[in-house]
Design brief:
This protein is of the alpha/beta class and 292 residues long. The chain has helices spanning 12-15, 43-59, 74-88, 104-111, 137-141, 175-186, 217-221, 260-265, and strands at 23-26, 38-41, 94-98, 116-121, 124-127, 132-136, 150-156, 187-196, 203-207, 209-211, 224-230, 250-255. A seven-stranded mixed beta sheet has the order 6-4-3-7-8-12-11. A three-stranded mixed beta sheet has the order 1-9-10, with no helix packed on it. Strands 2-5 form a two-stranded parallel ribbon.
């Protein structure tokens, strides 16, 4: 479905945590006007990206002790990502990547030693490579419980969009938290999640993304064991900044011994949706993340 130009009025309080998180406007429709999108990479294109990823990974070894500031450039972000992947030791790992439409992150994982990488997205993808596979979020949700157990999950600049409709996903004020639960459920016990989201003073930019500050960041990380942070600058959590220039540190998290249902019990309830024929907003019980 195409995203609405403004958040539905009956959900504004839930999206803004009862008005405590500012609401800004920057509308984007990456849903193909509701028709969905399809991205395809043939074998030759992926081999080219894989060669670039291997070269980048080799050139970064050993990882330098000092890297450029995380927000200084796209190159700096890539350097920090390589550093994180090297620290994680992906040899023979089964990896799942959430919200990727370009297989470069997947190729970096293969360069770091991963055995196989599965990409999950709202829309259909085609990556023609024997070590890569793709599935939609609905397909993941339809998998039998426990049938998919990954060693490592990556969500880089992805979960902050969930539930905002930008990519044709169903509207849900807690879509990002549901996405974190999905990642928890498809990881084996002790599995790790490499996560990046915009960090700074809390704000919801409709429907561009969420930025995580003192209010929402603790909820996002709740229930996970934090291993380390890459590129973290404590001052950025409260430092005023434009929401158009994202600072996105990397969080390395481990699935701990709690159950995801216990984690979810702590999340505030979402106000009920009105019953409207052909409503464009679906019930929280039909959110794909909620069914995994």
């Amino acid at each position: 479905m195409a995203p609405p130009r403004q958040p539905p009025l009956h959900l504004v309080e839930a999206y803004t945590l009862n008005g405590t998180v500012p609401l800004e406007d920057f509308f984007v429709d990456d849903s193909g006007e509701g028709a969905g999108t399809f991205y395809s990479y043939d074998a030759s294109a992926i081999e080219e990206e894989l060669a670039q990823a291997k070269s980048l990974y080799r050139s970064a070894q050993p990882v330098p002790s000092h890297l450029p500031p995380l927000g200084s450039s796209r190159f700096a972000k890539t350097q920090w990502l390589v550093r994180a992947l090297a620290a994680m030791s992906l040899t023979a790992s089964r990896v799942v990547v959430f919200g990727s439409i370009d297989p470069f992150e997947e190729c970096l994982c293969l360069a770091a030693g991963a055995a196989h990488v599965t990409t999950v997205d709202y829309n259909r993808l085609s990556f023609e490579h024997p070590s890569l596979s793709t599935m939609t979020l609905d397909e993941l949700s339809g998998s039998p419980p426990g049938s998919l157990q990954f060693d490592v999950a990556l969500s880089l600049s992805s979960f902050d969009h969930d539930g905002l409709g930008r990519y044709g996903d169903r509207l849900h004020p807690m879509g990002d938290l549901l996405a974190m639960r999905t990642a928890w459920r498809v990881l084996r016990p002790g599995g790790r999640l490499l996560l990046s989201v915009p960090v700074g003073p809390d704000v919801l930019v409709w429907n561009l993304h969420r930025r995580y500050g003192p209010k929402r960041l603790p909820w996002l990380l709740r229930g996970w064991e934090e291993v380390t942070r890459f590129g973290w600058e404590e001052s950025r959590l409260n430092e005023p900044a434009s929401y158009l220039h994202s600072y996105e540190p990397l969080f390395l998290l481990r699935r701990n011994g709690t159950t995801s249902d216990d984690i979810w019990d702590s999340v505030p309830a979402v106000p009920p949706l009105p019953v409207v024929p052909d409503a464009t907003v679906e019930s929280e019980h039909h959110c794909a993340h909620d069914e995994v």
